[in-house]
Amino acid sequence: MTTIPLEAYLTLSLVLFGLGVFGMIVRRNMVTILMSMELALNAVNVLFVGADAHLSLVDGQVFALFVIALAAAEAAVGLGIIIAIFRLRRVDSTDEITDMRG
Amino acid sequence: MEVLILLSPLIAFLLIALFGARIGDMASALLCVLGGAFSFLFSLWATSRALSEPFSVKLYDFLPLDAYNLSLGLFFDPLSSVTASVVTFVATVIFIYSIGYMHNLFGQWTFKFYAYLSLFLFAMLLIVLSDNLLGIFFGWEGVGLASYLLIGYFHTQKKASNASLEAFVLNRVGDWFFLFGIVASFYLFGSLSILDIFARVSQVDKALLGLACLLLFGGAVGKSGQLPLHTWLPNAMAGPTPVSALLHAATMVAAGVYMVARLYPMFESAPESLRVVALVGGLTALFAALAATSHTDIKKIIAFSTMSQLGLMFLALGLGDRMSAMFHLTTHAFFKALLFLSAGSVIHAFHHHVHYIYETGRLKRYMPITYASFLVGALALAGIFPFSGFWSKDLIVATAYEKSFLWGVLVSVVSFMTAYYIFREGFVMFHGKEHFRHEQKEEPHESPSVMVVPMLVLSVMAVVAGFFEGWYGGILGVHKELHVDIAVLSVVVGLAGILVAYLVYVKGLIDPQKAYEALKPLHTTLKEQFFTERFYHKVLAGGYLFYSKVIYMTAERQLIDGVVNFTYPAVKGVGGVFRLLQAGRLNLYAFFMAFGFLMLLFITIFWR
Q1: Are B382 and B305 in contact (CB under 8 A)?
Q2: Which positions in chain A touch B586 (Cβ < 8 Å)?
Q3: pLDDT, tens digit, for every residue of B510-548?
Q4: Which residue is closest to B575 within chain A, CA to CA?
């Protein structure tokens, strides 16, 4: 089995994370923003697992499991908030929710 | 027991102040009189003991320190106990009189008036009886406070509240000197007890002692209305007449003379300071007598005469004659109170609407008793034999001629003017034309007996007090011969003054109106007290106000307000910048987070 070099994991993780953050910044739809966050989290997971494979450890994998559980909970809460906002305001774009403007 | 002299007016004050509204004005007045009367009885008793043997009463340790134990107490010797008796007697008589005088104001919180009167008496007794300088200072401040409250008693009148303020401020200048005098004495003697001071008075540095004496005398100048702190005294006439009588006869202004007499061993050891005392006293005597000749306010004439007589007392003190000064203070207390009460009786007869002598006239017909008592007071003031003023003033005249001919002439001139101005007032008010007819339809009537009896009592005292001259000299350990030539001279001078007043104001030899027209600049100069009052009011007080206004317009309005007002635009500007960051957009916040994260990353990697 050819070993996948560490640089590949790092590159993939970085690209995914960058895409996730970029998505959070540029997308206006709240569900899409939530999805971008999942992308960023999974980029971190890839990094954890890849580093584990490279260093022959299991700590990162444990972390990755935690992150998956956390992401699930976060997605549930986040979606709940989004639905609540939608029910209240009938909007799904962040442009419409600027009540905290100073 | 002797403490009761002090305590009875104090208790009266507390009772009236606390329960006056409940027990009513009449009961308050009676309490006030009772406090004074008990105080008088106790001081008589104390006098009888003090005459045989001076004694001290320790009250309590006010400030027990390691190095020095400052205890307050009372000291009874002939000087203090006799003065206390005179003060309480005159004050009690005036309190009784005030029941009649203030009666038309009963029901309008007049109990306050009696509370202040009791406080006044208490503070004065504290000055008279204290055995140390700090106790005297407490009383000193107490009289200042009580006089402020009483002069401004008719506080709805602008004149009265201004006068009380002026009295307070000018007294404060004097008190400032007095306080520094006390500090200087403590520095010199290491003690504030007057007995300690007297014991060590010859051991200390003369120059410093003189300075301390001058500072203490500065306090007396303020309290006794001498030059140059005099303007409050005539203006204090804005208060009710019993207050004027109390102020001028028994309390307040007498305090200055008494204090110098009390601390006389100090002054005697620094003869240079006595020269200043004599100079200030002599100048004030002349100055006030001149001012009195030109005024027409019933009470102000008498007020100026008080200033003038106090000046004579200071002159006597300055010339080394404590006994005549104190004896004159005693007789003066009687006849000056009498003059004020008579003047108050006249004012009362016109329902307190009359203030100038030319608004009255020919009252002899309507108010014979008031006329008689005023006459007695005026004769005593003018120093006519055998009234009390003759005996005491004669002592001062004799002392003045003994010292130098110039002082003697000064005192004679003052005596001449004294006789002139007081009889001018008497003749215009009680003889002459009736000037009040067009003002008032009803005829003026004699005052009620509650006012007349005190006047009669004081009249008797004003006549007979002079005969105690030998006795008074005896208890102070001074014996003075009556100089027949000087006695004749001063009586002739007094009679001459009366004669001039008689010729002008009864016989009409010179028309006062024409004389006034001819001498108008002189008259104005005298009436304005050589423009000192105007100077104080316009230049000192006015200058202070102007200065305050300038400070207000620059430092206050420009500087402080500018800084305070600038905080708003400054905060708003800075906030406006940061406000842009808080756009309320989720995406922007996410961008900031990412940007911040990158920055932190950047710093941790490249910051070496």
Answers
A1: no
A2: 30, 33, 94, 97
A3: 776 777 777 777 777 777 777 777 778 788 888 888 999
A4: A102
Distance CA B38, CA B4 (A): 8
Judged by CB atoms closer than 8 Å, whether chains meet at B590 and A99 is answered as no
**Cross-chain Cβ contact A25/B591 below 8 Å:** yes
Across the interface, do B586 and A33 touch by the CB < 8 Å criterion? yes
B587–A21: do the CB atoms touch at under 8 Å?
no
Residue from A19, A21, A30 whose CB has the most chain B CBs within 10 Å, to mutate: A21
Distance, CA of B183 to CA of B181 (rounded, Å): 5
Amino acid at the residue B89? F
Decide if pLDDT at B562 tops 60.
Answer: yes
Q: How far is A28 from chain B (nearest CA, A)?
A: 7
How many angstroms separate the CA atoms of B42 and B52, rounded? Answer: 16
pTM of the prediction? 0.77
Are B429 and B357 in contact, with CB atoms under 8 Å apart? yes
**pLDDT at residue A78, rounded to an integer:** 92
User: Helices B271-294 and B298-318: crossing angle, nearest 10°?
Assistant: 160
Q: Is B594 within 8 Å of A101 when comparing Cβ atoms?
A: no
Residue of chain A minimizing CA distance to B591: A25
Give the model confidence (pLDDT) of B203-254 as tens digits.
Answer: 878 888 888 888 888 888 888 888 888 888 888 888 888 888 888 877 788 8
pLDDT at B359: 75
Residue among A24, A25, A101 minimizing CB distance to B584: A101
pLDDT band at A1 (very low <50, low <70, confident <90, very high): low
| Cβ within 8 Å, pair B586-A26 | no
Q: In 3D, which of B244, B31, B223, B63 has the Cα closest to residue B154?
A: B244
Q: What is the mean pLDDT of residues B492-514?
A: 79
- pLDDT value of position A44: 93
- The alpha-carbon gap from B571 to the nearest alpha carbon of chain A, in Å, equals 15
CB contact under 8 A, B578 and A95: no
Looking at chain B, the whole-number percentage of residues with pLDDT higher than 90 is: 4
Reference A18, options A54, A34, A42, A50; nearest CA is A42
Candidates A17, A44, A91, A94: best to mutate against B (most CBs of B within 10 A) is A94
In the numeric block, the tokens 């010292």 are attached to: B403
Adjacent-strand bridge partners of B477:
none
Q: Are B285 and B311 in contact (CB under 8 A)?
A: yes
What pLDDT, on the 0 to 100 scale, is given for residue A83?
Answer: 92
The string of pLDDT tens digits covering residues B379-427 is: 888 888 778 888 888 888 888 888 888 888 888 888 888 888 888 888 8
| Closest CA in chain A for residue B576 | A102
Question: What is the per-residue DSSP string for B48-113?
Answer: HHHHHS-EEEEEEEEEE-SS-EEEEEEEE-HHHHHHHHHHHHHHHHHHHHHHHHTGGGTTSSTHHH
Q: What is the DSSP string of B541-556?
A: IHHHHHHHHHHIIIII
Note the Cα A46 to chain centre separation in Å: 11
Residues B286, B437: Cα–Cα separation, whole Å = 36
